[in-house]
Design brief:
Layout: H1 7-14, H2 19-40, H3 42-53, H4 67-95, H5 97-116, H6 123-155, H7 161-193, H8 211-220, H9 223-235, H10 240-246, H11 250-261, H12 284-313, H13 315-321, H14 333-366, H15 368-387, H16 390-393, H17 399-414, H18 417-423, H19 431-459, H20 477-495, H21 507-511, H22 521-524
């Protein structure tokens, strides 16, 4: 049997779209803009780091990061992100969303700057310092996932909640795009000012000393958007759902939201939640109600991120494999950075960013479940379309077709599970566990990203040992790696059936917080109808 909802929560669910909704999207979204910029900009400069710090005199090809260093530089931020998602997700339920929100942002700002100031007496010490700061940068980024999603879901109205949360997440696309644009501008400026020959013409002169400033500027730029939004994050009131349902202060929640919504709201303190119903994360009651839901959100996010981050972080290697980017020896260091950034910016502009905004436009119309199923299915189709005729794509004249197909995998990742795996965990769990459960789901995703970033680095190497990058063992090749990623998408599609459809329902209806009795069959059902 359902209990009457607090008036402040009913007012939020029924509120028309107002200026404060857009303000919340921008404030939370700028965190995600910074997250994406910081996580993905490293892939734009790893080849430059290899040229600068691991030059091999007399070698036919420019220096490259040793396998263990490359794996650490690419993956250490994800290890920090996983830790931050678990820690700040739990802390957001204990201390409140707002109090923790500022901590994550300052952590991101300080570590972005520190990453660009990584110094040392030896190449390995520079890389160790860089990895140290990128771990803590990832730790701050990790906190932004559960907090931004939870805050936006608890501020939003019932009708357009999905679009608002998706809009926050869509800022990730602009972060990836901005990373490419900033790298293009910086590398072009240094290339024009410090002209250098190709590596095959003059190995030492191809990487001018000033190139060491390029990667540092690119990494430190990520601090600027985060710093600009810090003041506004601190001005946001605590969400009414946390104040009323977790902190048990319905009067304060009504007061805060009355100012935001500019309407009179009764406190309804007599309708506070029953303390007996406050089961914990590890209780039998939670697992009876939400166990399959948590299994579904974690496994879908885990499987998605294996594929998504593998493709994002190693675009440069895939583009080199199909000869869209020339061989490194035929370019100077600045030209190589410029060409890598140009390729990734084109993919972001044509596939990544549009996919996010298709989700914003359609998620409250089509629903989360259908979009996620369609996304996983289409990613599988396009990855198989790349893998099956792979030798066709690598022959001269067919590169454009490969890039178009590749862009479509990103489009359907973002108009699909990359967005929905972020949105749904912020909607279907109780308020007192919402941030924690989102953090657990997101951490499972980052575990997949770690597998993708470390695994793909080795797996995508050529099966012919003579053709592998310096220091790497033979792998299974790009073609077979794409088959593995397609398999991950198929499994993700199957796990989607554990996750309920949340479209058009209030958060309390989804989590069962308005129920006085045990969950009904309708509430317990996990497969959408």
């Amino acid at each position: 049997m359902a209990r009457d909802q607090l008036q402040v929560l009913s007012a939020l669910d029924a509120a028309k779209t107002q200026w404060y909704h857009f303000t919340a999207i921008v404030i939370a979204g700028m965190g995600f803009f910074t997250d994406a910029y910081d996580l993905f900009c490293i892939s734009l400069v790893t080849k430059l780091l290899g040229r600068i710090y691991y030059y091999r005199a007399g070698a036919a090809d420019p220096g490259s990061l040793p396998p263990n260093v490359a794996a650490a530089v690419n993956g250490v931020a994800f290890c920090g992100t996983l830790s931050g998602q678990l820690f700040f997700g739990w802390l957001g339920d204990k201390m409140g969303r707002k109090r923790v929100y500022g901590m994550t942002l300052m952590c991101m700002v300080l570590c972005s700057i520190a990453s660009g100031l990584s110094f040392g007496h030896t190449p390995n010490s520079v890389m160790a310092t860089l990895c140290f700061f990128r771990f803590w940068l990832g730790f701050g980024i990790g906190g932004d996932y559960p907090l931004s999603a939870t805050i936006m879901s608890e501020y939003a109205n019932k009708k357009t909640r999905g679009a608002f949360i998706a809009a926050v997440f869509a800022m990730q696309g602009f972060g990836i795009l901005t990373g490419g644009v900033v790298t293009l501008v910086v590398s072009a400026a240094f290339r024009a000012r410090f002209d250098a020959p190709a590596y095959q013409d003059s190995a030492l002169a191809s990487t001018p000393p000033q190139a060491d400033y390029v990667w540092r500027i690119i990494l430190m730029f990520g601090a600027i958007p985060a710093l600009l939004t810090y003041y506004w994050r601190m001005k946001m009131p605590e969400t009414a759902r946390y104040t009323a349902l977790v902190a048990k202060n319905a009067k304060q929640a009504a007061s805060d939201m009355a100012k935001v919504l500019q309407v009179e709201i009764d406190a309804d303190e007599d309708k506070a939640a029953d303390p007996k119903k406050e089961f914990g994360l590890f209780s039998g009651e939670f697992w009876a109600r939400h166990g399959l839901h948590l299994v579904g959100t974690t496994t879908c996010w885990f499987l998605l991120d294996i594929a998504f981050y593998s493709q994002n972080l190693f675009q440069k290697d895939i583009f080199s494999a199909i000869h869209w980017i020339p061989k490194a020896r035929t370019m100077s260091a600045m030209e190589e950075v410029f060409r890598i950034a140009r390729a990734q910016t084109l993919i972001a502009l044509c596939g990544t960013v549009p996919g996010y905004w298709f989700t914003v436009a359609l998620i409250d119309v089509v629903g989360r479940f259908k979009i996620q199923v369609m996304g996983f299915a289409m990613m599988t189709v396009f990855m198989l379309g790349l893998a099956v005729p792979y030798h066709h794509w690598t022959t001269p004249g067919n590169h454009i077709g490969f890039v178009v197909m590749y862009a479509f995998t990103f489009f359907f990742a973002n108009f699909g599970p990359n967005a929905t795996t972020f949105i749904v965990p912020a909607e279907i769990f109780p308020a007192r566990l919402r941030s924690t459960c989102h953090g657990v789901s997101a951490a499972a995703g980052k575990a997949g990203a770690i597998i993708g970033s470390f695994g793909f680095l080795y797996a995508a190497q050529s099966q012919d040992k003579a053709k592998t990058d310096h220091g790497y063992p033979a792998g299974i090749g790009v073609r077979n790696s794409l088959f593995v990623l397609a398999g991950c998408n198929v499994l993700g599609l199957a796990c989607t059936f554990f996750v309920p459809e949340s479209n058009g329902k209030s958060l309390e209806e989804l989590s069962g917080e308005n129920e006085d009795d045990a969950p009904t069959a309708a509430h317990a059902r996990t497969v959408p109808v």
